[in-house]
Predict the structure.
Amino acid sequence: MKVFYTLGMAVFLMSCSKPQNPDELFLAAKEKLYKAARVEFRQTLIFETPNMGEFDTALYSVDFRKNPEAVLGYDFRGEKEGHEFWYVEGVQYNVDHLKSTILTLEENESGRLKSNSYRSFNPLVLLENEPWKYLGDTSVKGQQLLQFLWIEMDTVIMDKKVYLENHLWINPANLLPEFYSRRLYHDGRRNQLIESTFEDWKLGEKAEPFVVEFPKGYLTKVEGSTESPLLKVGAPAPDFELEDANGKAVKLSDFRGKKVLIDFSIINCGWCKIALEQFAKPDYEFAENIVPLYVNPVDSKERMGKYMSNVEIPFTVLLEAKEVGKSYGVNGFPTFYLIDENGKIEEVTQGYTDEGILNWKKKSE
């Protein structure tokens, strides 16, 4: 969506009597947001396309919930058209609804999170910066707002003068931000403009932990993994030897004469866990000629030990399987390979399906 105006064209400044103490109002607005255990709002962001004279818009909905154990103090979820982002319990989930994929990244450092767009232009983050300076009053559609300025950068880089300023407008009636403008100048000429409106605020005194849920059939991928083709039906299954959770060696070729279901799964994969829950049900039993194997190409032996203390995996677990994952072309999770009695690939299934779970179940007589 293209637009060719900025908030500045819709806002006019007028001289009004200065509030009794705008600095106290600013601090009160800050306190109000930080006191809330849960902060939700909708946001319309306008991004300037440099040197084109055009602007793109993005509509965000944002939900931040306090979590003292989180790197930056909050777990959060952001949503825009075709995309969701979750940061929950130290894991990032980038959900692409157009591709039906979930890209996961375990983030123990705050650097990437700080630059996440759902955070960067969020008043919870903006208000942390100092110093904000009161500039004056603004009237928007008859509503008085107080305008504050924070100069983020004023320097010279490689003979180029770089100046970056941030403007925030706060409604004194409800102590909530309504507009934001970020303006970058190079040698006095505007090089970038980002502006935003905030609306539909909801502040809560309690914050229930997020329950991460994704649509059925979505494939979980690990950031940094390379895309490689899955092996084809009829091809020989690469043999491998791995240790199970008890340190015992397990070799694929030892199961010749039986079918083997290889469940390639990882910890940070919602549908992998749902598949395990289905397999662990009291009324679920694999077909008599199928030997199931859980193979994890990503997570360490130590992490899997902790995981297995909380999640039931009702069959043999094979660890340290990175090279095996590569040899089978696994690029998303869960991925299931059914190997026939002669060691050839009979079936390949990517993602969770009810049909697959039922196909491998023992048939009732």
